[in-house]
Design brief:
With 599 residues, this protein is an alpha/beta fold. It has 22 helices and 10 strands. The protein folds into 3 domains: 329 residues, ABC transporter type 1, transmembrane domain (ABC transporter transmembrane region fold), CATH 1.20.1560.10; 150 residues, P-loop containing nucleotide triphosphate hydrolases (Rossmann fold, 3-Layer(aba) Sandwich), CATH 3.40.50; 68 residues, no CATH class.
């Protein structure tokens, strides 16, 4: 992951927040009201001390607004102090409420948009990326790292700016009262700046380490819950708990270290401001005894000093906590900036419906460097042909199907569909040409009808039922209490393996794609269920190009071509001899050239 500078990350985050600038400006304006309210807050105390207890006149601006009889009355001055205190408290609460409501709405909307952007990007990433990084890492980036945008653009930036404005206002006011005290107060600023510069890189580095450990603990949870049956079958609950606790402890230690660093930084900031306050108090008392200041003025300066150092502390604290969010933003932008492994080329051609002719020309592929999976694969499949792909585990059978659907791009060579390179088609149009039935059917935690309609969301109820009937799924669906509205549970686990596979077949029927990709669709069912599924697949394959991986010879009887792989090479091929005829889909001919490739 490339390390990014603070300014670059600020720019990127603010660029993402640009559509919400009007609402952010509203929050900023409401927060700015805290500055004049803060300036007025100590005023009732000054009036009470100087004009009620003491004999000093009311502040000049109040004398201009009030009649002389009121200005010279101590009772009236006390009433003004009390009334002003209540009025300022109400104004402060109203300002806080309005700011809170607008801030909550803006941050939630901003976060939702940012999460959707990252989720969209992750869905476009190749299988290779997800195989390498893991699902837990992607979940962590979407759910946790994206929160950096609301903190940096709103919770961090706005208080930072308003604190700077408040700081400037306090400096102006305290300078007019006693510039010596102001000068003493601001001498600590360079020290705070040096502290920030020293701790910022340490906090960023520790934040990165913490986030890596946090998502590794999340990965353990995900693995265990996905393989829960295996964990229970082997009685490994305690071991998995220990593994999770160990990862979590590592994360806890890292968070404690981060908290210690932040606390140490906060301690130094607090100590520095305390020294500044002590110096101002020392000099201020001497000024009061010398008659340079009134006691009320000193109290006013000390109150302003608390508000003066408040923004300085805020700036310092935000600089510390900001590093954690900048580390999160860095992780998010590393995803958004990542070059796609399987990009859609500029000027890619649309494709409505392919005829289904497929050609591999000298295709080589490897998942990892120096580990070749396919070596110089070449074959030609006419439209409407059924191809059986056989070979030992690890020979490269599934890889051929992954390349055909362009989940990956070959390292070298070409894959053609209707004599056009796959990379020259629009990606969505290309994948719309395939209906896929996997060894382990994938269902979503919704109704049976919605799972079938996943292939075509706008399908009518009648079309869904027709697809289920063609897949031999209608009868068992109707026996369920809620029929097509039955919830299948997470990953469809409320249904049997054979039932899930028939739902998957119904989805393929509904999609009505010209090319079928069948990856061992009957390997996990019994022979009786297999015969039901094969009957449905026979109907599904009519008039379509079909590629099927299988180990059972019973499922490969009526295929036109047989492609045998060994160690990533084609070692034999030939036509099916089960029927001797082409079943009306055109002549099946031996188009795979036999080659002695070795290995």
């Amino acid at each position: 992951m490339r390390v990014r500078g603070d300014l670059e990350l600020y720019r990127r985050v603010l660029q993402q927040a640009r559509p919400h600038w009007l609402k952010i400006a509203g929050i900023f304006g409401l927060d700015l009201l805290s500055s004049p309210l803060g300036l007025l807050t100590p005023l009732p105390l000054k009036i009470a001390v100087d004009s009620v207890i003491g004999a000093h006149p009311l502040p000049a601006f109040l004398q201009m607004l009030l009649p002389a009889t009121v200005s010279n009355s101590r009772a009236a001055a006390l009433g003004i102090a009390v009334g002003l205190l209540i009025f300022l408290a109400i104004l402060a609460q109203l300002q806080s409420l309005a700011s809170s409501l607008l801030r909550t709405y803006t941050t939630e909307k901003l976060l939702l948009d940012f999460r959707a952007l990252v989720f969209r990007r992750l869905q476009r990433m190749s299988l290779s990326y997800h195989d390498t990084t893991g699902t837990a890492d992607s979940i962590y980036r979407i759910q946790y790292d994206t929160t950096s945008i609301q903190y940096i653009s709103i919770d961090g930036l706005i208080p930072f700016v308003t604190s700077a404005v408040t700081l400037a206002a306090m400096l102006c006011v305290t300078t007019r009262i006693d510039w010596h005290l102001t000068l003493v107060a601001v001498t600590i600023s360079p020290i705070l700046l040096l502290l920030s510069q020293a701790y910022r890189p340490r906090l960023r580095q520790q934040s990165r380490k913490t986030k890596d450990l946090e998502h590794s603990a999340l990965a353990v949870i995900q693995e265990v819950l996905q393989a829960f049956r295996v964990v229970k079958a082997f009685g490994r609950e305690e071991q998995e708990e220990d593994r999770y606790v160990q990862r979590s402890r590592e994360g806890m230690r890292s968070r404690l270290h981060l908290a210690l660093e932040q606390g140490r930084y906060g301690l130094f900031v607090g100590l520095t401001t305390a020294l500044g306050t002590a110096a101002v108090l020392w000099i201020g008392v001497r000024h009061v005894t010398a008659g340079v200041l009134t006691l009320g003025d000193l109290l006013l300066v000390m109150a302003y000093l608390g508000q003066l150092y408040g923004p300085l502390k805020t700036v310092g604290q935000k600089a510390a906590s900001l590093q954690s969010y900048l580390a999160s933003a860095e992780r998010v932008f590393s995803v958004l900036d990542r070059v796609e492994d399987v990009p859609e080329h500029a000027g890619a051609s649309p494709l409505s419906r392919a005829s289904g002719a497929v050609t591999f020309r000298h295709v080589c592929f490897s998942y990892e460097q120096n580990r070749t999976v396919l070596r110089d694969i070449s074959f030609d499949v006419p439209a409407g042909t059924r191809v059986a792909i056989v070979g030992r585990t690890g020979a490269g059978k599934t890889t051929i199907l992954n390349l055909l659907t362009r989940f990956y791009d070959p390292d070298s060579g070409q894959i053609l569909l209707d004599d056009v390179d796959l990379r020259n088609y629009k990606l969505a149009d290309l994948r719309n040409q395939f209906a896929i039935v996997l060894q382990e059917p994938v269902l979503f935690s919704t109704t049976i009808a919605e799972n079938i309609a996943y292939a075509r969301p706008n399908a009518s109820e009648a079309e869904i039922v027709t697809a289920a009937k063609l897949a031999n799924a209608h009868d068992f669906i109707m026996k369920l209490p809620e029929g097509y509205q039955t919830q299948v549970g997470e990953r469809g686990m409320r249904l049997s393996g054979g039932e899930r596979q028939r739902i998957s077949l119904a989805r393929a029927f509904l999609k009505d794609a010209p090319i079928l990709v069948l990856d061992e669709p009957t390997s996990s069912v019994d022979l009786k269920t297999e015969s039901v599924i094969m009957e449905a697949m026979e109907r599904l394959m009519k008039g379509r190009t079909a590629f099927m991986i299988a180990h059972r010879s019973s499922t490969l009887r009526d295929f036109d071509l047989k492609l045998e792989l060994e160690a990533g090479c084609v070692v034999s091929n030939g036509t099916s001899v089960a029927t001797g005829q082409s079943r009306g889909r055109g002549t099946a001919r031996p188009v795979l050239e036999e080659r002695e490739t070795g290995g």
